[in-house]
């Protein structure tokens, strides 16, 4: 792999490339790796640099197409996303979470993944516009390959719960290959291993796709950098792997041939935006109840081929209940709640001279000295002076024998916190809705391109699904002998409106897959209808999204597409026609 940046010395260059991939997130990197290993020369374009920076973060702005984000929701989104996405803010990104830089949004994710369920691919009569043109079984091999890429365990723990139509489900965590106290970051953990046939061009934002309507070929890409440089790329094949927002935006702004944009003959590009909606159902208090639930619905360690893997146990609606009650696929998980007098939070306020109640913060630190000492011991595992084999042994043993403790260390960056309870969190898929969409705003970005605007709302079926989760959880707890959870007032009162759920930054659906162009943007091989060489990868091709954190599924679809591109395709080396110093 070679990595360069688009700079002034490249201005005016024209490049011919066999396969051009737009986007250096996990999907783009996985396709580049697979195709290059099959003999294809790959040019991967990443809008950002190796890491996030403020200049490129300005390109991430997404406007609200209406009044969908009020101050309370913005504060909720900030509390949910702000701790992991360092440069993100709810005002700049009124919808979604995007990170410009190699590795994409894995710079901010929690590493939490699960495969989609069989029902997610089915045509569900109670959900209009549901159904995939492929079945779950057609992705089994690709899911296995994606699992290996993520370093996951092939077998989940046995189901441990089944009451009131709720049953066990498991998420798994993709762990870093280089930092034992972190999750997998594709820019750091995966990109350095790309083969020599991959060339990565950073600070390279595609501003337009050129299209020849006669040959039905995407025949050029206009690429610009924030430094002012620009190049033209002449591709043989193109894969858009820039995420559900940017894939749709790029197709919409490329409208010099078709007024509605490339592939948009039926006004479907950008439409059917789906995500996962998250909302807190209530809380669990009381030390005995917390201990019981943490043992059942906490984290599980499992060893496979000498490596320790970590699972999180939750509850999901059974397929039978979904069909019987006309519901979406949804799940529940339990999240720790920090105490007001958390000693590490108090210590940070004192050290930053931001304490509004110094006496109380000093008392909290003194009472929590054990937590602070434990945190300092955990952080020693990041020290370069401790041998790697020793770190592996310590962390691996901890995952097997104390997975809840390890999960807390992962979530807190190695800093333990004083807890007061467990939050009951619901996550539901959102139903396909033509009016939920990505469109173009009049406002321009720093490169002079119209920004994306989002309209994403939940409706009656999402509200009914969330309320059903709460009612069935209450019933299931009683059947299992647990103390009743403290549920929100709206959970069992249909006359009490739900608060707005937060988008979980699992953007999907804006270039959905279908059997025909009247119902989707790409075919079952992810080729854009009406084109011969333009493909789309990632979550934007998903017609529905299930409840699972979807990166595993995105990677499976990406590897399936890479195999399709490599099968029966002639190989040709990328050729630079002029001004090529940056690429050779």
How would you summarize the topology of this molecule?
Blueprint: E1 2-5, E2 13-22, H1 26-37, E3 42-45, H2 54-57, E4 62-64, H3 71-81, E5 112-113, H4 140-150, E6 162-163, E7 166-173, H5 186-190, E8 198-202, E9 205-212, E10 217-224, E11 230-240, H6 243-253, E12 276-284, H7 287-297, E13 299-304, E14 307-317, H8 319-325, E15 330-338, H9 343-351, H10 358-367, H11 369-379, H12 388-401, H13 403-412, E16 419-429, E17 437-444, E18 450-455, H14 460-480, E19 486-487, E20 502-503, E21 534-536, H15 551-566, E22 575-578
Parallel strand pairs: 1-8, 2-3, 2-11, 3-8, 4-18, 11-21
Antiparallel strand pairs: 2-22, 5-7, 6-7, 7-14, 9-10, 10-11, 12-16, 12-19, 12-20, 13-14, 14-15, 15-16, 17-18
Helix pairs in contact: 1-15, 4-15, 9-10, 12-13
């Amino acid at each position: 792999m070679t990595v360069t940046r688009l700079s002034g010395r490249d201005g005016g260059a024209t490049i011919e490339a066999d396969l051009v991939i737009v986007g250096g997130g996990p999907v783009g990197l996985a396709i580049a790796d697979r195709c290059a290993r099959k003999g294809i020369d790959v040019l991967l374009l990443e809008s950002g640099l190796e890491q996030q920076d403020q200049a490129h973060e300005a390109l991430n702005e997404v406007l609200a197409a209406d009044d969908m984000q009020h101050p309370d929701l913005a504060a909720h989104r900030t509390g949910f996303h702000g701790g992991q996405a360092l440069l993100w803010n709810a005002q700049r990104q009124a919808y979604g979470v995007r990170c410009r830089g190699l590795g994409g949004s894995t710079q901010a994710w929690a590493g939490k993944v699960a495969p989609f369920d069989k029902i997610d691919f089915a045509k569900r009569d109670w959900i209009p516009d549901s159904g995939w043109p492929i079945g779950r079984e057609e992705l089994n091999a690709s899911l296995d390959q994606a699992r290996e890429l993520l370093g996951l365990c092939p077998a989940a723990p046995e189901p441990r719960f089944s009451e009131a139509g709720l049953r066990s489900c498991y998420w798994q965590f993709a762990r870093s290959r280089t930092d034992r106290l972190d999750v997998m970051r594709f820019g750091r953990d995966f990109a350095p291993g790309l083969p020599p046939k991959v060339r990565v061009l950073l600070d390279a934002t595609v501003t337009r796709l050129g299209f020849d309507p006669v040959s039905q070929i995407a025949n050029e890409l206009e690429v610009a950098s924030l430094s002012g440089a620009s190049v033209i790329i002449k591709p043989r094949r193109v894969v858009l792997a820039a995420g559900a927002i940017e894939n749709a935006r790029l197709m919409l702004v490329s409208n010099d041939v078709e007024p509605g944009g490339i592939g948009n003959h039926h006004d479907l590009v950008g439409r059917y935006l789906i995500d996962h909606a998250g909302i807190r159902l209530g809380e669990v208090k009381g030390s005995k109840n917390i201990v019981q639930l943490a043992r059942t619905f906490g984290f599980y360690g499992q060893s496979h081929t000498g490596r320790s893997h970590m699972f999180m146990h939750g509850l999901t609606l059974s397929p039978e209940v979904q069909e019987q009650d006309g519901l979406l696929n949804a799940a529940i998980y339990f999240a720790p709640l920090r105490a007001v007098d958390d000693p590490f939070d108090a210590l940070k306020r004192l050290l930053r001279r931001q304490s509004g109640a110094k006496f109380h913060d000093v008392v909290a630190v003194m009472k929590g000295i054990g937590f602070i000492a434990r945190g300092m011991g955990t952080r020693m595992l990041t020290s370069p002076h401790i041998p790697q084999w020793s770190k592996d042994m310590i962390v691996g043993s901890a995952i097997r024998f104390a997975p809840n403790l390890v999960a807390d260390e992962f979530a807190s960056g190695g800093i333990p916190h004083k807890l007061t309870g467990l939050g009951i969190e619901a996550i539901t898929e959102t139903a396909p809705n033509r009016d939920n969409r990505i469109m173009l705003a009049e406002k321009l970005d720093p490169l002079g391109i119209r920004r994306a605007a989002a309209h994403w709302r939940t409706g009656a079926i999402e509200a009914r699904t969330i309320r059903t989760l709460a009612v069935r959880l209450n019933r299931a707890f009683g059947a299992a002998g647990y103390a009743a959870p403290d549920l929100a007032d709206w959970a069992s009162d249909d006359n009490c409106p739900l608060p707005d759920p937060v988008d979980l930054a699992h953007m999907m659906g804006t270039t959905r897959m279908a059997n025909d162009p009247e119902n989707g943007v790409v075919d079952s091989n992810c080729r854009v209808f009406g084109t011969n060489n333009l493909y789309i990868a990632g979550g934007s091709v998903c017609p529905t999204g299930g409840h699972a954190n979807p990166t595993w599924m995105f990677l499976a679809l990406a590897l399936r597409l890479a195999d399709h591109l490599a099968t029966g395709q002639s190989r040709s080396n990328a050729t630079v026609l002029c001004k090529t110093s940056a690429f050779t």
